[in-house]
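Q: What structure does this chain adopt?
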Amino acid sequence: MSRALVPLFSALGHVPTSLAAGAGRTAGHLTGLFPSGSKEQLIKNHQRLADFPLGNDHVRRAFASYFEMFAQTPSLHRWSEQKIRSSVDATNQEQLLEALEQGPVVVAMTHSGNWDLAGAWANYELGKVVTVAEVLQPPELYDYFVKTRQSLGMEILPAKRGIFDTLREQVKGRNVLVPLLADRDITGSGVEVDFGGHRALVAAGPAALAKQLDAPLWVNHMSSKRDQHGLKYTLNLHPVETTGDVEADTQAWVDAVVPLIQTNLADWHMLQPLFVDDLDQERLARARERHARSAEETGEQ
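A:
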């Protein structure tokens, strides 16, 4: 990612929210008109979960949703508590609050909606959010996103080697929400699952962390809907029945989240390959070898 994104995001933070969001939607619509690797991959991902041919209108809506999220996020620190609360609602909120009273709750999240806004809302409505962030390049971009999320009340840990143990110790015994983006594996340690009738690799982290913490496991896919008052997001939160078997529990949360994605497909911001047929098999093999060596060195099972 370019260093030019940091000043761009910083500038958007001073633009009125509605104007920035509108610019984001327009940019997304335009991007969806032209061929690109990201567009091709998004179509592949979405088409696998759709039971009808996806047209250009769907692609443009999907890119508009994605770009609006990025245009909206830089100004979130200026939003009032009332605006944040009124911009998001959630399913099964009372049940989740009851679970949080007992300790940490792990949430397997999809790349959808606006997860920074979700984190800000959760800090008001549910409890403290503790999560990890991919270490992006250049470092200035990573620092920007971390500072933005910290300003919204979230605790952010870098997704570096050893992060699983660090995160486990950080949240153990606390009444905190632990959302983890999990609908794509980037580590080489992912679990292969049936993802809507197609083989895919997703992150093992949520199920493994829930097991080690003896914590509840939930899923979330975030959808959006526009009305006369603007854009409203919904956290489609659902509990998952777990067994303590990481692979089985990973398949269980995938089974729970796929119907949510299918119902709100344009809000699924998955522009990277996750389905096995789309993956570079040699690169995947190297990643798994690196993970196996790392596990041996650290004594993981």
